[in-house]
Design a protein that fits this description.
Layout (H helix, E strand, L loop, with lengths): L13 H11 L6 E2 L16 H13 L12 H12 L4 H4 L3 E7 H16 L5 E6 L5 H7 L3 E6 L1 E2 L4 E2 L1 H10 L5 E5 L12 H13 L3 E6 L9 H4 L1 H8 L5 E5 L11 E7 L3 H19 L5 H10 L2 H31 L7 H5 L4 E3 L4 H11 L1 E2 L5 E3 L8 H12 L1
Parallel strand pairs: 1-12, 3-4, 3-7, 7-8, 8-9
Antiparallel strand pairs: 2-10, 5-6, 9-10, 11-13
The structure holds pyridoxal-5'-phosphate.
GO molecular function, one term: L-aspartate:2-oxoglutarate aminotransferase activity
Cofactor: pyridoxal 5'-phosphate
EC number: 2.6.1.1
Length: 401
């Protein structure tokens, strides 16, 4: 018998499954709203002009392909930390931020979870919002953490269940690990307001919980990198010892380059050195060291005033295009007298919108209009553009009538 005779068939990935069905559909009007990657106004993948310029510079410089150190490119790590925390952030100035390059946001989360599993003394339970990015759960479990949930999304208002969220975080045993989406919550597009973040900070402090931030969309949410980093920076100011996962997939359009970072706010330099040493011990047997190209691009952009400013306006353009699609979709749905309240389409933030469509309506849209999305009704706003938005709005309107 084969060694793998007893390997059971696993279920397909819910998001990649949507793309497969989309590909198989011959309709010229088909739309794939499943993927979380930015598309330009014509529906095409987008390479940022600042990235193109940085790549040209790299080619001209004739860089080699040597290995990076285990924790990655030093200039990248420094600039990534400054982008997230701000140059004047106390842990940076005081040399007590342990940071390592990672294989994009997913790799950052995986290292973070492994580190907590090994060293966080208070708890091995991580609380994630309901719902959360699908990968958070298996990733935490594979790292040896137990996953529990806190309330987040209120179906009836298609908004934040802030009371439920606070109550669940408050009820978690002291010292629990609380995973927070720093901005542009995936999949709902619903974020706490600044004053709600302040309340959350207070509760988490009182309960001595450990805040674990996932920031996959800095700049992409509002178009402003500082505004999107509010929660992280506020928590740091409030003295929380947090950890932060960063991804450069969305805000620099470097999806396939796999460039990210994970950082830990430490008490002092000496503690940072110990954390650094253990990060190396976790990473070395996983993949030895991270890929170099994407980190060089990010470093070239963030480290050059002109390219950095170009990039800021490019992120803003991406965010603004998405926001304009939200406006247009809302207006269309209202004009078509679509039953229901659609204000959430406009108020939600980031790449995704949780439409409130039911699984049956999602199926109907695929069948009748060749429009594909995950069955939770999440759509990638970036997949909408001037050419397809009227068609999409009409189909949605019909599906809910
Ligand atoms: N975290 C969240 C909430 C995400 O939505 C994503 C991507 O969709 C990621 C992390 C990580 O993505 P990547 O590994 O491509 O950086």
């Amino acid at each position: 018998v084969s060694a793998w005779a007893n390997v059971p068939q696993g279920p397909p990935d819910p998001i990649l499954g949507v793309t497969e069905k989309f590909k198989a559909d011959p309709s010229p009007n088909k739309i794939n709203l499943g993927v979380g990657a930015y598309r330009d106004g014509k529906g095409n993948p987008f390479v940022l002009p600042s990235v193109k310029k940085a790549e040209k510079q790299l080619v001209r410089a004739g860089a080699n392909h040597e290995y990076l150190p285990i924790t990655g490119l030093a200039s990248f790590n420094k600039l990534a930390a400054e982008l997230a925390y701000g140059k004047d952030s106390a842990p940076l100035k005081e040399g007590r931020l342990a940071i390592t390059q990672s294989i994009s946001g997913t790799g950052a989360l995986r290292i973070a979870a492994a580190f907590l599993g090994r060293f966080y003394p208070e708890s091995k339970t991580i609380y994630v919002p309901t719902p959360t990015w699908g990968n958070h759960i298996p990733l935490a479990k594979d790292s040896g953490l137990e996953v529990k949930h806190y309330k987040y999304f209120d179906k009836s208002t298609v908004g934040l269940d802030f009371e439920g969220m606070k109550a669940d975080i408050e009820a978690a045993p002291e010292g629990s690990i609380i995973m927070l989406h720093a901005c542009a919550h995936n999949p709902t597009g619903v974020d706490p307001t600044e004053s709600q973040w302040k309340e959350l900070s207070e509760i988490i402090k009182q309960k001595k919980h450990f805040p674990f931030f996932d920031m996959a969309y800095q700049g992409f949410a509002s178009g402003d990198i500082v505004k999107d980093a509010f929660a992280v920076r506020y928590f740091v100011e409030q003295g929380h010892q947090l950890l932060l996962c960063q991804s450069f997939a969305k805000n620099l359009g470097l999806y396939g380059e796999r460039v990210g970072a994970v950082s830990f706010v430490c008490a002092d330099k000496e503690e940072k050195a110990r954390v650094d040493s253990q990060l190396k011990i976790i990473i070395r047997p996983m993949y030895s060291n991270p890929p170099i190209h994407g980190a060089r691009i990010v470093s070239a952009i963030l480290g050059d005033e002109k390219l950095y400013n170009d990039w800021l306006s490019e992120v803003k353009k991406m965010a603004d295009r998405i926001i304009s699609m939200r406006e247009k979709l809302y207006t269309n749905l209202v004009k078509l007298n679509t039953p229901g309240e659609w204000g959430h389409i406009k108020s939600q933030i980031g790449m995704f919108s949780f439409t409130g469509l039911t699984p049956e309506q999602v199926d109907k849209l695929a069948e009748k209009a060749s429009i594909y999305m995950t069955r939770d009704g999440r759509i990638s706003m970036a997949a909408l553009n001037k050419k397809n938005i009227d068609y999409f709005a009409k189909a949605v309107s019909q599906a809910v009538k």
